[in-house]
């Protein structure tokens, strides 16, 4: 028994010694974990381009995940770098998420934000027509924003917004008991983007007009007529002989039809809109009619003494209104009046100015220069002559253009009147071909035609030239009475290239407008004007190979 107590005492003594002498215990190998992330916030562009995060830890491994990883966040580990990317943000709102990095029981959180896309907002129509009896119309819209506000620009007691959804809303209008049309505007707003919807309600009036939100394309017109309850009766396709047109049957008893004519089906607006009124008294000298069209900017300009023809002009819209009275009713036509909408660079001075020095004319006894003089001049300028031309004209490709022309041309008198005719071989017209049509002409997509620019009209007017009209070969004619000099401008195809053809000639300006007395004699004046244009047409109608 004594031995047992001695052994026990020994064990206890060693234990006490260990407690009293901790330095005598072996040191632990366990190190405290560390985890550092280079940033706690990360901003991604809307394209989602990857951004790096640097991870520092004393642990052998680390991991990362995101609650949004299954939807729009993507993660990629390479060594001590974590690349955070995202799918492109098509939404109009910024989106936010988080990335969690873990190592050795430690966790770090990184806030991730992605920039919003540009806000998109499209409305099914920019204008809407409601019938006079009122009713409801659904308007649809598309947006990448969840925060689209829809409200009336100004309060209107006859119109309210109902049944708002994520992609549509309903406009409800009360009946219009007034004869005048009324309108309101609805604003759709998403961020800084604002779309305006113009709502018009017809008045309690017998008058019917075409769409006057001008210009409007064919599909806008189809929608407009459908919205006010009109039915497409027939459509005439575009051919070489006819323009496309679309006739609608209306709900009106006195205006049974309305027809739109276009230059092409892709035109941004109609060329002519025609309505037939079965009651001529509604429009013939009727103040109510004048008041109704005045609401759209049409003001009466002139009428024939018997009121068979009445013309209205409009300073707001590029349209003229012509009312024609005939047996059984009246024809009301809204005719497109082309208006240049942007400036064009024209010639710095009158074209062909140096070539005019060669011009002559037998009838006016202007000597001019002869063919040999022309060829010597152009040879001195280094010009290349087209050797395939006949003897009565010369074409030269200039080495040194005067006004960027690609061709200079000269026509000669080749018909003698006597044995020793001094005018035989004299230049009687000159021409230039210019590749830039916009020097003088602009193309109108609505009527599908070229028109003289305001700039070229101003140039010729400043030089004392009057605009005389168009010839049969579609040349625009200008004339200076004092100088007895005429110009024509037209589009011409030269060697399969469309060019501006400018010609000049001396000629007698006898167009029935050389005096007040002549001008007042309308019949004689018109006859002389037509004869003058035919003479100009003959001078400009040249066969060029």
Helix content: 10-25%
Count of separate structural domains: 4
Largest sheet: 8 strands, antiparallel
Relative strand content: 35-45%
- Spatial extent as radius of gyration: 42 Å
- The spatial strand order of the largest sheet comes to 17-18-19-20-24-23-22-21
Number of strands: 34
| N- and C-termini, Cα separation | 143 Å
* Helix-and-strand structural type: mainly beta
Question: Which descriptor suits the 3D outline?
Answer: flat
Which regions are unreliable across 5 or more consecutive residues at pLDDT < 50? 1-9, 14-25
Average pLDDT number: 86
Q: How many separate helices?
A: 7
Please describe what this structure looks like:
The chain is mainly β and 545 residues long. It folds into four domains: 35-114, Immunoglobulins (Immunoglobulin-like, Sandwich); 121-201, Immunoglobulins (Immunoglobulin-like, Sandwich), CATH 2.60.40.10; 218-336, no CATH class; 355-540, no CATH class. The strands form seven sheets. An eight-stranded antiparallel beta sheet has the order 17-18-19-20-24-23-22-21, with helices on one face. Strands 25-26-27-28-34-33-32-31 form an eight-stranded antiparallel beta sheet, sandwiched between helices. A hairpin with a 5-residue loop joins strand 31 (466-470) and strand 32. The chain is flat and about 130 Å long.
């Amino acid at each position: 028994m004594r031995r047992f107590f001695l052994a026990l005492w020994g064990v206890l003594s060693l234990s006490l010694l260990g407690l009293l002498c901790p330095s005598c215990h072996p040191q632990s190998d366990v190190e405290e974990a560390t985890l550092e992330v280079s940033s706690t916030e990360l901003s991604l562009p809307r394209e989602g381009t990857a951004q790096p995060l640097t991870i520092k830890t004393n642990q052998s491994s680390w991991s990362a995940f995101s609650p949004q990883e299954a939807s729009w966040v993507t993660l990629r580990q390479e060594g001590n770098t974590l690349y955070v990317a995202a799918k492109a943000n098509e939404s109009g709102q910024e989106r936010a998420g988080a990335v969690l990095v873990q190592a050795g029981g430690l966790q770090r959180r990184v806030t991730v934000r992605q920039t919003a896309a540009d806000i998109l907002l499209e409305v099914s129509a920019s204008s809407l027509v409601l019938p006079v009896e009122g009713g409801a119309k659904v308007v649809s819209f598309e947006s990448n924003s969840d925060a689209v506000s829809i409200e009336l620009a100004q309060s209107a007691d006859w119109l309210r917004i109902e049944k708002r959804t994520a992609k549509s809303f309903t406009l409800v209008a009360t009946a219009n008991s007034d004869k005048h049309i009324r309108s309101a505007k609805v604003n759709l707003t998403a961020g800084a983007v604002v779309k305006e919807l113009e709502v018009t309600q017809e008045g309690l009036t017998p008058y019917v007009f075409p769409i006057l939100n001008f210009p409007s394309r064919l599909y806008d017109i189809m929608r407009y007529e459908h919205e006010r309850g009109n039915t497409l009766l027939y459509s005439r396709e575009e051919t070489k002989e006819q323009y496309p047109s679309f006739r609608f049957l209306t709900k009106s008893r006195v205006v049974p039809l309305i027809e739109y004519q276009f230059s092409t089906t892709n035109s941004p607006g109609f060329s002519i809109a025609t309505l037939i009124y079965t009651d001529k008294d509604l429009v013939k000298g009727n103040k109510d009619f004048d008041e109704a069209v005045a609401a759209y900017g049409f003001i009466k300009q002139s009428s024939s003494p018997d009121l068979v023809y009445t013309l209205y002009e409009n300073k707001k819209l590029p349209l003229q209104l012509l009312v024609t009275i005939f047996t059984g009713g009246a024809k009301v036509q809204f005719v497109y009046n082309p208006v240049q909408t942007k400036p064009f660079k024209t010639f710095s001075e009158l074209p062909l100015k140096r070539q005019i020095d060669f011009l002559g004319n037998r009838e006016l006894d202007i000597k001019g220069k002869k063919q040999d003089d022309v060829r010597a001049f152009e040879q001195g300028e280094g010009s290349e002559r087209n050797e395939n031309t006949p003897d009565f004209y010369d074409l030269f490709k200039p080495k040194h253009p005067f006004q960027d022309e690609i061709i200079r041309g000269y026509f000669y008198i080749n018909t003698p009147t006597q044995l020793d005719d001094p005018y035989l071989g004299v230049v009687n017209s000159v021409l230039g071909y210019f590749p830039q049509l916009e020097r003088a002409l602009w193309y109108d997509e609505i009527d599908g035609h070229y028109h003289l620019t305001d700039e070229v009209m101003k140039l010729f007017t400043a030089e004392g030239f009057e605009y005389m009209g168009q010839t049969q070969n579609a040349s625009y004619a200008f004339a200076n009475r004092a100088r007895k000099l005429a110009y024509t401008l037209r589009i011409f195809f030269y060697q399969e290239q469309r060019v501006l053809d400018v010609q000049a000639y001396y000629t007698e300006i006898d167009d029935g407008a050389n005096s007040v007395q002549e001008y007042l004699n309308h019949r004689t004046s018109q006859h002389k004007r037509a004869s003058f244009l035919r003479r100009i047409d003959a001078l400009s109608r040249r066969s060029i190979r």
